[in-house]
Structure formats: structure tokens, C-alpha cells
Design brief:
The protein is an alpha+beta fold and 420 residues long. Among the domains are: 50 residues; 104 residues, Alpha-Beta Plaits, CATH 3.30.70; 119 residues. It is 38% helix and 22% strand. It contains 12 helices and 16 strands. The strands form 5 sheets. It has a 5-stranded antiparallel beta sheet with strand order 6-7-5-8-9, with helices on one face. Helix 1 crosses helix 3, helix 1 packs across helix 7 and helix 5 crosses helix 6. It is globular and about 90 Å long. The two termini are 36 Å apart.
Length: 420
């Protein structure tokens, strides 16, 4: 993925515009992409430093520096590097330096230090030749890692990745992202929500006009910590948003070293290329689902397919649906550990009067108390430490099952959304 400093963008007023590859620029980009890919293939088996030296020999005009650096980074990210060492380099260095110090201490006046002899002595102890010792000594350094595999990638595919990576890099500097999406089928909409949930992003969801949905996502620059990790998750969501039949997106940014407030707009119709693999649940949710495989004390669990709509309040996208053999249904949403504000949004949702029973799970790192929803008829909060506990979830499901739901509240599914 590209970093924000590699984005070819211009500022016009308070707007940020990303420069697309068109005309002669695209032709030149394809020439650079072809050259860099061919050089990478030729350098397979060599060191990373040798690859970078070969790339540096390609003539690049000053206006092409960002483009060239971006293409090289995407190729490098897709390559496989590793250190080839029979011995851990730090262990080898320690043993070699200790041996060298001992030899130096025994030198007489005028006697010269024999480096080759020390390499041979340490190599013999480790079953390595002096040449192998020399190669392994600093093989853990980035520049000395060996290029083991170059991806089967065409220049055209590399340019497609580059265009997407530029847009993703912009989102790394976002404070807030607002996306209006249109999906032609309930299945496509549910798949988008699955991918949104998988990234564990902080979002609010509202039904829009014409069957659209408005998604407001907190950006990484709205957080006090975990900015880089969260920003990566937001950037990785972009391909899923681009698969919508229509997308209107606005991102409020803090751009450049000065973190200048700017706005970036993206509009697309027709959707992007479809991804073959369906989104899976986050790892901790998958583990909890496995713990309930085959049933547990009368409860069974399945991935949630429903979006719960409370008119005037918003939409809730649960992760799991728990069903009791007595007919009770309770939904679970895992909030993770990004922001306390996300918890308070859900608390407000429950306090407005949910017609469904929901259990929310939040990390202990958010410093919230389960008592904020203590004895509420339609909602409960489970604060977990480390990982989700099936036993703890089961206890809270039983507590919620014994409570009478607020029958005064009404909900419905969003337009074009069928309950499974």
C-alpha cells in the first residue's frame, strides 16, 4: 500500500484532487512499470540492495519521482524476501565479536589481527564455511535480504493497483468519511456490511433516499491512538465500497506535514471488479461462533444476516444471531477497542427503546462499565479482557432472556433488505 506522501495530488482551494493516469502519463507509467517488473525478475535470488540499485539505474524525470517510487513500492510489497541464514544473525554476530575480542586480547605488539582466521574458527564451530559466515553475518538487515519470489504481475495490473492504492493512501489521512452507497440487491448490501464489520471500523448507518444507505465512518485522525492500524483497516475497506452499484464518497482530511484541512470527493457508478471471496467474520467472532458449534446449554449461534432499523435513531449491524431452543433470539455486536464513543452510541440506541434484544461486547481497554446497561430489558453490555469468553457470553444471554423487551418500540428492515 502507498503512503500519503507518495500520492500524486494537487490542492485546489479546500479540495484535494488525485491525479489519474491518463494519456501520455499513463503510457509513461506503463513503461516504468514494465521496466521495474523486468528488473525485479532479473534480480530474483539477489539481495534487496541489489534490486534497489538496479531500479535506480532507470532514468526518471523529476516530475515522475512520486510515480516511480509508488510503482516500486507496490512491486516490493508484492515480492517475497527472506534472510538466508543457517544461524540466527544476532547469535552469529555475538559469537564472532566475542571470538574477535579474545584474539585481539592475545595479540602481541606488532602482530596484526587476522580477520579471516577468526571467520574460519567461528565457522568451524558452527559447521559453516568462512564465506557462509560472511553472508550470514548481517543477513537480517533489510538491504541484505534475498529476493525469493516476484509476483506474476503485468504492467497493466500494476497500474490498476497503483490507481486504487492512491485512493487508499488518501484515506490514511481522514478524520471522517461519508459514503452514500446504492446496491441493487440485498445480498450485495449484506456483503458490504459484512466487510464493514470485518474491518472493525467505527461507523454510523442510516437509510437514505432511493434505496441508498449513508455510512459515516470515523477516520484514523479522529483517534488519539492506534492511528496507523485503524487507517489501514479503513483503506482496506475501499475496494468493498467501490463494488457498490453507485458510490458518492466524501473524506475530510488532515493533509501534509501541516495537517491542512482538506476535502476529497469520489464519485463512481457501475461498481468495480467483484472480489471472489466472501468476507469472513473477525477472528474473535469466528472463535466465539466455533465455541457454540453444535449448541451450548440450549443456545445456538450463526452469523447475523439482519440489519436492525430503529426509525429516527439509526441502524445496527450485529455480528451474530443467538437462538434459544425456547424461541428467544438475541443479537451480538462486538465493538472492539477503537473508541469509547462507539459504546456510548450503542448505549443511546438501547436507551431509545430497542424492540430486539442486543448484547454489545466491548474491550476493557475502553474503560466502560457494564452497569451502564444493567438490568435494561432489551440490551446489555459485556466488557471483555483479551478475548471473548463463551462462558461469559452465555451468562449474559441468560440474563437478557429473562427480561421482558420494550414492546413499545418498533423497527423495520431497510428498503431492499430481506431478513434471512
Amino acid at each position: 500500500m502507498l503512503t500519503a506522501d507518495l500520492v500524486r495530488a494537487t490542492k485546489r482551494g479546500d479540495q484535494l484532487h488525485v491525479s489519474p493516469l491518463t494519456g501520455k502519463n499513463k503510457q509513461r507509467a506503463e513503461e516504468l512499470a514494465t521496466a521495474y517488473l523486468e528488473l525485479a525478475l532479473a534480480q530474483c535470488g539477489g539481495t534487496q540492495q541489489e534490486l534497489e540499485s538496479a531500479w535506480a539505474d532507470v532514468e526518471v524525470a523529476p516530475r515522475e519521482i512520486k510515480l516511480a517510487a509508488g510503482l516500486r513500492k507496490l512491486i516490493e510489497d508484492a515480492c517475497e524476501f527472506d534472510s538466508e541464514s543457517a544461524v540466527e544473525p544476532p547469535v552469529l554476530r555475538g559469537q564472532l565479536f566475542l571470538a574477535a575480542a579474545e584474539v585481539r586480547a592475545e595479540l602481541e605488539r606488532g602482530q596484526r589481527f587476522d580477520r579471516a582466521a577468526v571467520l574460519a574458527k567461528v565457522g568451524a564451530e558452527l559447521g559453516l564455511s568462512p564465506e557462509q559466515v560472511e553472508r550470514c553475518l548481517y543477513s537480517d538487515l533489510r538491504s541484505e535480504q534475498r529476493l525469493l519470489r516476484v509476483p506474476e504481475l503485468s504492467a497493466a495490473e500494476l497500474l490498476r493497483r497503483y490507481e486504487l492504492a492512491q485512493l487508499q493512501a488518501v484515506l490514511l489521512r481522514a478524520v471522517k468519511v461519508t459514503a452514500q452507497v446504492w446496491c441493487s440487491s440485498p445480498d450485495a448490501l449484506r456483503e458490504l456490511f459484512r466487510k464493514l464489520k470485518f474491518r472493525r471500523l467505527l461507523f454510523q448507518l442510516q437509510p437514505g433516499e432511493g434505496g441508498s444507505h449513508r455510512i459515516e465512518i470515523d477516520g484514523p485522525f479522529s483517534l488519539f491512538e492506534s492511528v496507523t492500524k485503524y487507517g489501514l483497516q479503513l483503506a482496506l475497506l475501499l475496494p468493498a465500497l467501490l463494488q457498490a452499484d453507485r458510490l458518492e464518497m466524501t473524506a475530510d482530511l488532515r493533509w501534509g506535514k501541516a495537517r491542512t484541512p482538506l476535502r476529497f470527493n469520489l464519485s463512481q457508478r457501475g461498481g468495480g471488479q467483484q472480489e471472489g471471496q466472501r468476507a469472513r467474520l473477525p477472528d474473535e467472532v469466528e472463535a466465539l461462533l466455533d465455541a457454540f458449534d453444535g449448541g451450548r446449554d440450549g443456545w445456538s449461534a450463526a452469523p447475523a444476516e439482519r440489519v436492525i432499523h430503529l426509525p429516527g435513531i439509526g441502524l445496527c449491524v450485529p455480528d451474530l444471531r443467538f437462538s434459544h431452543r425456547g424461541g428467544e433470539v438475541i443479537w451480538l455486536e462486538v465493538l472492539g477497542y477503537w473508541s469509547r464513543d462507539a459504546v456510548w452510541r450503542r448505549v443511546e440506541l438501547v436507551q431509545q427503546g430497542l424492540p430486539e434484544k442486543l448484547l454489545f461486547a466491548a474491550s476493557q481497554r475502553l474503560r466502560v462499565s457494564e452497569q451502564v446497561l444493567d438490568e435494561h430489558p432489551s440490551g446489555a453490555l459485556y466488557v471483555y479482557k483479551g478475548s471473548l469468553s463463551a462462558k461469559a457470553v452465555l451468562e449474559r444471554l441468560e440474563r437478557l432472556r429473562s427480561r421482558a423487551v420494550n414492546v413499545g418500540a418498533k423497527s423495520r428492515l431497510p428498503e431492499n433488505q430481506a431478513s434471512s
